[in-house]
Here is the input.
Amino acid sequence: MTPNFGIMVHGGAGTSKIRTKRTQISKALEDSVSAGYDILLAGRDSVDSVESAVASMEGSGVFNAGFGSCLTLEKRIEMDASIMDGRDLRAGSVGAVEHIQNPVKLARKVMERTDHVMFVSGGALKLAELCDIAPFFLEPTKEKLEVYTTLHKKLKTAWSRNYRLSSSSSFTLNQRHFGTVGAVAIDKHANVAAAVSTGGRWLKMHGRVGDSAVIGAGIYADNSSGAACATGNGEFIMKLCLSKYACDLMKQQQYSPSQAARKAIFLVTRRFGPNNGGMITVNAKGTFGLSMNTRSMPVAIKSSKSHGKMHVRL
Ligand code: GLY
Here is the structure.
């Protein structure tokens, strides 16, 4: 019997209710989950599936990843992404990369074409060149510059009250603007994989790298447990090694994917308070789970269990 196969994608955890862009968000999730599912249906592996799903969301411009990435304090776009194969724990990631159309595809090159796990900044660009990935120059849109101006004013007020070199006081300003994208999938051979991509946090300092580039934090995948993908405040997710924690909980079917995601997010809430993040999970049997401590985390799922019927939740 072919095991249950399928994919779940998310468009990031945020504190504001999704009122605007509902149609675009829904369409972008549908396109993404369908791209990933069609690959699984054709018998290809879960790594292809999550890469394709995340690349689709990077290209949509709707989320804080790829085309939609937020701006740093210096109005630059610096993106993080990673991918992991549950068969053999192979993983690849890129941090603070600029001028790359699909950071998740570059992360996959790191995984498959090098014996390293993480590349950052200029070194990642050099690798892209070696792998024939052409540079792609993305100008900040008018809409992004407006958000930048609003947030920057608030940040300056926060700084004048509590001066810090870092932009971490901008955290509360960021809560409405999460939007990292990610996917977990299981293929017909019961192999799991995870991928994630983000523009990071609004007004982050130049060179800041978040959880999406850190294996074990932003994603984890291991056939012996399952796969997990986190979204939210990267600093908190890194400190808790959140995705690895969720996968460990799923080991030996100790906890279901829903329970593992809930326990992981409960840990975030307990240590750092509410409105910080969310997680999607899948175990080696093809059962999916999700949890968040924010008001919203748009997700879509398509699996053989539901005969390929798509389910979107905004
Ligand atoms: N979770 C995305 C980030 O903090 O960079």
